[in-house]
Amino acid sequence: MSESSCYILDNGAYTAKAGFSTMEPKVVPNCIMKAKSERRRPFVGSQIEECRDASGLFYILPFQKGFLVNWDTQKTIWDFIFSKECCPVNFSETPLIITEPIYNFSSIQEAITEIFFEEYECQSLLRINATDLAEYHYRKTHNNECTVVVDSGYSYTYIVPYIKGKKYKEGIRRIDVGGKVLTNHLKEILSYRQLNVMEESYVINQAKEDSCFVSQDFMADMEIARRKGSSNTIVKDYVLPDYTTIRRGYLRDIVKPDEDLEQQTLRLNNERFSIPELLFRPSDVGIPQMGIPEAIMHSIEGCPEENKESLLENIVLYGGNTLFPGFRDRVFNEVRAFALDHFEVNVTLGENPVTYAWEGGKLMFRDPDFYSFCMTREEYEEEGKALAFERFDI
Amino acid sequence: MTSRESGRVKDAEKRRVLDDAARKRRARKAIEALEQDNFHEDPHADLVMSKKVPKFADSNEKPTRKKKAKSAEYYKMRFRKTFAQLVEEDASFRPDPPNYLSAQVPPSKFPDRHFCAVCGFPSNYTCIPCGARYCCVRCLGTHLDTRCLKWTA
């Protein structure tokens, strides 16, 4: 039994990446949104593109703190993703790879197994951590022994060391800072300093994506941001969307008041780099945790001595937050400074960080042993959910 | 009858200094706020659905569907568990570390940095009543006018 393609669903807390292994993945917002302007219908997943006025969007997310808890929401979104409107699939003919968070809770695991075998009538199912797929992707392209995978997503940043393709659980570290915290913090400080944008998660999230960067020398950048006039190279205006002529905001240089084009803008100065800085220093907002580079070192410290060298040489980053300009360089510089001098340090930014794990699923489907990782419908009917716990190492 | 108040008593009230526990409570609230999905009410919450109007997607088309397709509502009821319940349950499923709780990184070995609560630049001073940070007299003024002890419940 072998099919020519499989369906891969990297079910993230903010976006789901879905599609057949023979195609390009679709990135679908994994949420239902309600707009103030459209009173009649909620927007499921990528339907939001049809929404004319995305101000004051109300989010309904299936995930809470990185775990799937709102099943009615998730079911509605999955129905949308698997429908003709998005990326249709028949699971009785196509194997499915679905990702789950690290240490996913047992009852959520059971629920996923049940839903896919019974509701979606899946033939073969592979439940796996997104970091496993990313590690597989990296290992197949680099031929290395050990890898440290850094997944910086919406709810969390996870650091997972792998030794010979197997995750080393004693070394797994989680930082409770992800894209959501960054957006909310930006919203909070902008609302206090300039304009109340507390209801504009969607717009401010875009503003964050468009204007923030990771500083390489934080205190020096703070000094630049303090300067007045043209010697301040950091300060910019972010033009907010008005949903008549501008659909997505953009960053522009500061213009003199008389040249003002009557657009509503937010002035971004130290906000541009102090927001992503939270990934490196969560204590800046009072979250008593290590930043990413320090946590990488802490994770590697927890691994066997003989693997440390190989781990330091193979650090791979992916997830939405890694898209901030300067992210990789900052991680590299700090890890380099922490690590002993005689070790080599390599930090790689996964290509297309958002779909890096999804692409790993594509490679894994081509693995000759692929079907031995999966669980089939017959096995499920024979042995039930208990087998799923044995087979899938979540 | 309007009661007469002493201006000095009022002022003293204002100068109340938050104790450590209250400051920690505030800090925790601020961190919790960073986890919220929305800061406003559901804009459709006040919509009254008329019974005559057909609802979307369900009931009407059901007879034509060949498969039993359970509704989203069914799964909500079937797997209803809160995040706190799940964490508690995990303690019996994976009692020994490594598990979800043990994976959280410990505090950094580096000292905390402090930033002005008003302008975001590095700060050297602490507001005496509430413990917020500020960097200059101007920012302190703004802080006292807008935030300091303003949202203590």
For the biggest β-sheet of chain B, the strand order reads: 1-2
Given the helix and strand composition of chain B, which structural class is it? mainly alpha
Number of strands of chain B: 2
Number of separate strands of chain A: 20
State the separation between the terminal residues of chain A, measured CA to CA. Answer: 26 Å
In CATH, the topology of the largest domain in chain A is named Nucleotidyltransferase, domain 5
Features:
heterodimer; A: 394 residues; alpha+beta; Nucleotidyltransferase, domain 5; Actin, Chain A, domain 4; 3 domains; six-stranded mixed sheet; 20% strand; globular; B: 153 residues; mainly alpha; two-stranded antiparallel ribbon; 5 helices; 33% helix; extended
Word description of this protein:
The complex is a heterodimer of chains A (394) and B (153). By secondary structure, chain A is of the alpha+beta class. Chain A folds into three domains: 7-129 and 354-391, ATPase, nucleotide binding domain (Nucleotidyltransferase, domain 5, 2-Layer Sandwich); 134-177 and 287-349, Nucleotidyltransferase, domain 5; 179-277, Actin, Chain A, domain 4 (Alpha-Beta Complex). Chain A has 15 helices and 20 strands. Chain A has a six-stranded mixed sheet with strand order 3-2-1-9-10-20, sandwiched between helices. In chain A, strands 11, 12, 13, 14, 18 and 19 form a six-stranded mixed sheet that branches. The two termini of chain A are 26 Å apart. The relative contact order of chain A is 0.15. Chain B is mainly α and 153 residues long. Chain B contains five helices and two strands. Chain B has helices at residues 7-14, 20-33, 72-78, 83-93, 137-146; strands at 125-126, 133-134. In chain B, strands 1-2 form a two-stranded antiparallel ribbon. In chain B, strand 1 and strand 2 (133-134) form a beta hairpin. The longest helix of chain B has 14 residues, at 20-33. The radius of gyration of chain B is 26 Å and the shape is extended. The two termini of chain B are 28 Å apart. The model of chain B is unreliable at 58-66 (pLDDT under 50). The interface between A and B is large, with 74 and 56 residues.
